[in-house]
Amino acid sequence: MRTTYAALVAAIALSVFPLYWLFVIATRSNDVIGDWPPPMTPGGNLFANLGRLFGAEEAYFLTGMINSAIAAATVTVCVVFFSALAGFAFAKLRFRGRNALLLVILGTMMIPVQMGIIPLYMIMVKFGWQNQLQAVIVPFLVSAFGVFLMRQYAERAVPDELIEAAYVDGCSTFRTFRTVALPALRPGAAVLGLLTFMATWNEFLWPLAVLETDNPTVQVSLSQLSTSYYTDYTLMFTGALVAILPLLVIFIAFGRQIIGGIMEGAVKA
Amino acid sequence: MVADLHVRAPRTAPDPGPTTRWWTRADRRVSPYVFIAPFFVIFTVFGLYPLAYTAWVSLHDWGIAGETGFVGLDNYATLMADPDFWNAVVNTLGMFVMATVPQLVFALILATLLNQPLRGRTLFRLGVLAPIVTSVAAVGIVFSQIYDRDAGVANGLLGLIGVDPIDWRAGRLPSWFAISTMVDWRWTGYNSLIYLAAMQTVPRVLYEAAAIDGASRTRQFFSITIPMIKPSLIFTVIISTIGGLQLFTEPLIFGQGDFAISGGSLRQFQTVSMYMFENAFRDFDYGYGAAVAWMIFMLIMVVALINYLITRRMR
């Protein structure tokens, strides 16, 4: 048992160290880079580095943070709402073609995203959306994974009796969804929301393709830092630290729910 | 709550008059389609249509100025004779194997450790999952420094045991190794939680019976645990295949500077996704890029099929 704990502590040290290291270097100045042994404690340079980060002309870091916040929030709200709506329909309503359409959704989950980005880019050009924030929002407002997840959840969490009762009370289908299904779906929706927010915040290839460096998302800003300032390690580390801050906050506040969501999804898969 | 409503419902139910009846019927019939419509509309426009169109574009000479002629399978023929493409395929497959095999083995070990009566188990699970919440680009930046030739921690540690500094970006194997560790660092914990969830559904009596029969812990692991969690193994193998063969961000950030998209000065760590991006969005050769995109799809299908066959035959 003691070896189990020792091994686990070692594993966690490995998984947490790069994050700690990220913080340490972000608080230092560039002259400690390359020192041996490397610095292991935070220094006092964080605010100076932050100032340089937001002043770095080629990175547009503040724009990147704001863009990512807007995109991730919009995508999250829409994905959760549309997924709950469709998931509820697939789990609880009877209609012709239901199983076939559900199969279509399952099939689309297997398709690699990168496959369609060249025509997607052409569509954006046609709409005049290159370098516009909506280009990284609108295509991602729905998610096959989300619909599937909410369908699985609704199957168990929304009792048929409640729907019947609401119908007898004269509720429309949408009102039934809003007053009966949505409250019951809330825990599942929360997990989906967290995962969607993190995924959107981390999206990289598509924003890199469709946005210019003067109107980036935060990940594009980071990559810009790593091309234009790649010798300036403290600057890059400070950028990386700021970029993961929202994710860290989410993880610390909702880590348990995320673990629960991953493990529950795994058993059903 | 359920029973409560059920009893109350008939009493408060309004008598559906003739005017509400057609409306209710229409509502019941149409609403399901309205509910699923947003998904299908948006997905068709921004998901399905681009996918099909990729095939069309790949059959043309298609540049930034638009389509300049139907060329049939010419793009694919060029691709088959393109050494840079095959180089990218080799890199992608190499890093895929180098990253995935240790990742899944470590995840299994980690899950076995976590699947014991532990004190503070939530804390352990959180610790293991922490890497997944960081952004890929941030991971790339941290590991880029760790693997720096002159100032990196990796070479510093190697120096302690008397190994000469390695130029991690210069050669194929060192750069593959460095990039693989980034992928592993990020995904091992996630996979271990998936295995853990599966392990917890294995009935305890199986282990007890095996223990009575004198089976060692190792024997129990290979004869009970592995077969019982096989669906999860297949799931993680497929997910890692889809993700691993689309590897893009880690090598791009690792590349730094001007050679980023070509994966080093000699393309030593350029993946197929990077090659597609280079053709489509740096050289604006959409037709050729679309052909590469289709090859990524084919590659994923082939490897997924091979993996599936291997995993299925496993005991």
TrEMBL record, chain A:
<keyword id="KW-1133">Transmembrane helix</keyword>
<dbReference type="InterPro" id="IPR035906">
    <property type="entry name" value="MetI-like_sf"/>
</dbReference>
<feature type="transmembrane region" description="Helical">
    <location>
        <begin position="233"/>
        <end position="254"/>
    </location>
</feature>
<dbReference type="InterPro" id="IPR000515">
    <property type="entry name" value="MetI-like"/>
</dbReference>
<feature type="transmembrane region" description="Helical">
    <location>
        <begin position="133"/>
        <end position="150"/>
    </location>
</feature>
<dbReference type="Pfam" id="PF00528">
    <property type="entry name" value="BPD_transp_1"/>
</dbReference>
<keyword id="KW-0812">Transmembrane</keyword>
<feature type="transmembrane region" description="Helical">
    <location>
        <begin position="184"/>
        <end position="201"/>
    </location>
</feature>
<feature type="transmembrane region" description="Helical">
    <location>
        <begin position="59"/>
        <end position="88"/>
    </location>
</feature>
<keyword id="KW-1003">Cell membrane</keyword>
<feature type="transmembrane region" description="Helical">
    <location>
        <begin position="7"/>
        <end position="26"/>
    </location>
</feature>
<keyword id="KW-0472">Membrane</keyword>
<feature type="domain" description="ABC transmembrane type-1">
    <location>
        <begin position="65"/>
        <end position="254"/>
    </location>
</feature>
<comment type="similarity">
    <text>Belongs to the binding-protein-dependent transport system permease family.</text>
</comment>
<feature type="transmembrane region" description="Helical">
    <location>
        <begin position="100"/>
        <end position="121"/>
    </location>
</feature>
<protein>
    <submittedName>
        <fullName>Sugar ABC transporter permease</fullName>
    </submittedName>
</protein>
<keyword id="KW-0813">Transport</keyword>
From TrEMBL, chain B:
<comment type="similarity">
    <text>Belongs to the binding-protein-dependent transport system permease family.</text>
</comment>
<dbReference type="InterPro" id="IPR000515">
    <property type="entry name" value="MetI-like"/>
</dbReference>
<dbReference type="InterPro" id="IPR051393">
    <property type="entry name" value="ABC_transporter_permease"/>
</dbReference>
<protein>
    <submittedName>
        <fullName>Sugar ABC transporter permease</fullName>
    </submittedName>
</protein>
<keyword id="KW-0472">Membrane</keyword>
<feature type="transmembrane region" description="Helical">
    <location>
        <begin position="228"/>
        <end position="248"/>
    </location>
</feature>
<feature type="domain" description="ABC transmembrane type-1">
    <location>
        <begin position="89"/>
        <end position="307"/>
    </location>
</feature>
<keyword id="KW-0813">Transport</keyword>
<feature type="transmembrane region" description="Helical">
    <location>
        <begin position="286"/>
        <end position="310"/>
    </location>
</feature>
<feature type="transmembrane region" description="Helical">
    <location>
        <begin position="126"/>
        <end position="147"/>
    </location>
</feature>
<feature type="transmembrane region" description="Helical">
    <location>
        <begin position="30"/>
        <end position="52"/>
    </location>
</feature>
<keyword id="KW-1003">Cell membrane</keyword>
<keyword id="KW-1133">Transmembrane helix</keyword>
<feature type="transmembrane region" description="Helical">
    <location>
        <begin position="93"/>
        <end position="114"/>
    </location>
</feature>
<feature type="transmembrane region" description="Helical">
    <location>
        <begin position="187"/>
        <end position="207"/>
    </location>
</feature>
<dbReference type="Pfam" id="PF00528">
    <property type="entry name" value="BPD_transp_1"/>
</dbReference>
<keyword id="KW-0812">Transmembrane</keyword>
<dbReference type="InterPro" id="IPR035906">
    <property type="entry name" value="MetI-like_sf"/>
</dbReference>
